[in-house]
Amino acid sequence: MGAFNIPVIVGSTRRGRQTPKVARFIQRRLAERDGIESDLLDLAQYDFPIMEERLRQRDDPPPGLTEFSERIAGADALVIVTPEYNSGYPGVLKNALDHLLPEYRRKPVGIISVSAGPWGGLSALTQLRQVVLSLGALPIPAKFPVRQVQSSFDEEGETEDPAYEKSAERFIDELLWYTEALAARRALDSG
Ligand SMILES: Cc1cc2nc3c(=O)[nH]c(=O)nc-3n(C[C@H](O)[C@H](O)[C@H](O)COP(=O)(O)O)c2cc1C
Fold first, then answer.
1. How far is ligand 1, taken at its centre, from the CA of residue 81, in Å?
2. What is the pTM of this model?
């Protein structure tokens, strides 16, 4: 079996956004593991328009959507890094996710929530789990809430807080467990 492909979705497009710092951190920690390939899927770079119809119902896909679909379809698992806005996930993330459906099926999804406050965006994380289930994917039980992101991570996505390093280890271990389990089951289907 080749390396597992686990892209990281950057769920914030805000000017001056902080979420990419955490996305870079987890992407690097994933890619450092043997047997994992990981890169960033940055919604700010895709710049999808408001969803008019799912990709599979359209013959005029917006720029980037077919490539985004192929990246999700080719993934063994996903990490979504979401900011918390007004106790939820941002509309731009939901808009992007809603363009696709079969691409997510039976894939484990790890959610990292990012907030400027002391609670780590747990409301956004909990709500996004419901959405992930509706997409046919499997939110993993591990949580990864990031508090006070403006001071806990630098621009390069590094942190001096050992608790985040520990959380990342546990989070990736768990994501990998589900990724391996589901890949083994999928291999049975493909004979
Ligand atoms: C519209 C808006 C609403 C927000 N609501 C919350 C919130 O409910 N709880 C919270 O902890 N932080 C909230 N924040 C702060 C964000 O969590 C903060 O900006 C953080 O850096 C992550 O988002 P970013 O990637 O846009 O920077 C809000 C920010 C914005 C722009």
1. 13
2. 0.98
pLDDT tens for each residue of 37-84: 999 999 999 999 999 999 999 999 999 999 999 999 999 999 999 999
Check pocket membership of 18 for ligand 1, CB cut-off 6 A: yes
* Amino acid letter for position 41: L
Q: Number of structural domains, the chain?
A: 1
CA of 59 to the centre of ligand 1 (A): 36
Q: Are 19 and 114 in contact (CB under 8 A)?
A: yes
| Residue 87 belongs to domain spanning | 4-189
Angle at the Cα of 21 from the Cα atoms of 20 and 25, rounded to 5 degrees? 110
Of 9, 25, 84, the residue with max ligand 1 atoms within 8 A of its CB, to mutate for a pocket test, comes to 84
Q: Considering only CA atoms, which of 135, 138, 1 is closest in space to residue 69?
A: 135
